[in-house]
Each structure stands twice: as structure tokens, then as C-alpha cells.
Amino acid sequence: MSTFKEIRGTLIKSVSSDPANPQIGQIWYNSTIGSLKGYQSIGGAWAAGGNMSTAMLRAAAAGTQTAGLVFGGIQSTGDGSVTNEYDGTNWTVGGALTTARQLLAGAGSQTAGLGFGGYGPPSMNAKTETYNGSSWTEVGDLNTARGALSGCGTQTAALAAGGYYILPPGNTSGYYANVEEWNGSSWTEVNNLPQVVSAGVGTGTQTAALNVGGRNNPPGGTTIANAYEYDGTNWTTGGSLGTATNSAGIGGSQTAAVFFGGQTPSAPSGTSTSQLYDGSSWTTTGSLATARRELSGQGTQTAALASGGNIPPPTNTSEEFTDPSFATQTLTTST
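Request: output the structure for the sequence above.
Response:
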């Protein structure tokens, strides 16, 4: 049998304390505590990010972990039109939405963003706005006004799915299965979701989208674990979440997503659970440091961003996800 020295060409060093900046795969013997240790992957993990200018929940998001955009929602300061931009370290205030609202959806990037739908109050909103990195401009309306809808895609090719409605008089309410595609200037009705869904989240592109979680069975609503995949024409059922969840955050693509936070039947105030999707099934990964619901999420499966939400109370904190993350671990040996 080959030895470590024969394979690696070096001996395992004996040191009195762990190295300050170990390399991935490095192994050493800590003589002070008498343990063999190494620097290796610990899977996905969340770390604290910067704080936004204001606490925000029910806000929309777009962009990446190092170029993020969060806008609208219920805000501790302002009227619900505030936009926050993230550079991977700090948040700064961007241009204000032309129409303040909560429960809207987002798509695109930090410099080419799209915001659509939402709840006024007092009524549901069909407005769509584009963002150029400094200001918002109103463009073509959704065909169906709604809030608590999901969104994904780009500024010129986005997807809006599901949502919630309130219809006066009598404040009749319910959920939608309606789906619309945006071509850069107008929205077109396309094939519906397999069921009505409110407070679900979406990620991916207009032709390869993923819609996850939420509520069905209005008006009270039942939290669901369903995931649906869109190929640009039809919706099919994907793998179900490990735990039924609504009002969560998401990042990634149809075949490589990370889903985090939200509200579950057993955690109505919010959960810290995170799950990874490989295009067919979900697995649990590292948990958020702070359980939260009604948060904003964006980025990729390996570099996602969670911001704001309701702990409760509403928060302005953010967290960054890295998969894989690396850490010093005590190693065990077997004979």
C-alpha cells in the first residue's frame, strides 16, 4: 500500500498550532492537542453580509451575490419605493421605484433590472418597471394585476408566475395559476402552472424556469412542497422540497438551485433551513444563521444572497452562501 509520503512526496508536518492560512487538502498533526487535522470542504455554508439601508420584507430581488438589487417591499424607513444595491461588501441606496409596493417580483441584473406586479395597497398592481443602474422607468403592464407572484429571467425575457389577488367590492381574494412572458416591451399569457400558487419563488430563465414552494387552496392557503419546471412551453412536476415552505428565497438555475428560509407549518415565524436542487431532488445544506421569512434571494447555487425578511421583527441584515465552503476539521483514522 502506498504511503502519504509516496503519494504526495512530503511528510505530514507536526505543528504546535493550526496554520493561519492552510491550503485546500492540506493535512497536519497538531501536537498541542494531539489531533490529526486538515483543511477540507464542509459543504454549503452561510456567512454574514452587509446591512441594508433599511429593514425590508416582501421585497423583490435581482442580480448576483456581488452585484445584487433589492427593491420595494415593506420598509422600516421610506414608502416602499427604496432600492438597495450590493457590491459584495456594502449596500448603497439606488434609484426609487416610480410606484411603491410590496409583494412584487424581480428579474434581471443590478444594471438591467425588472420589477413587476405587487400590492399597493389598497389594490393589486400590474405595473412593470425597468432599472438601468440608477433609475426606474415604467413600461408595459402585466395582463393580470397580482401580488405574491414569482419572477425570473432577464430584463428583456422574464417570466411571471402565480400570485395573489384581492378583488373589491367585498375584498374577494384568491390565488392565480396564470403565467406571463415578457419580451422587453409587453407581456403575453402562456400556459398556466399546474395549480394555483401564491408566495412561491422562481429562478432560472424564461425557457428553463423553476417555480418552488408557496401556498395553494385559497383563501386560507396550504403550504406546499411542490416544484415545477418550465421549458418555454409546458410545465412539468419536479422534485418536491424536503419541507413544504412558502415566502422563501431562491438562487440558481432550473438544474442547480438553492432554496432558503421562508415559513413552514412547524416554523410559522420563519425557518433557517436551506436545500439544494440538482434538477431532480432536494438535499439539505448549511442553514441560515438567522431564521427568516418573506426575505429576498438571488445569485447562484454556489454563491447566493439572502437579505431582509421578517425574523420577526423586520431586518436589514444579509447573508452570503458559498458551496462548497472550506474549514479546518479534525480527521479520524481507521485500521
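The chain is about 0% helix and 45% strand.
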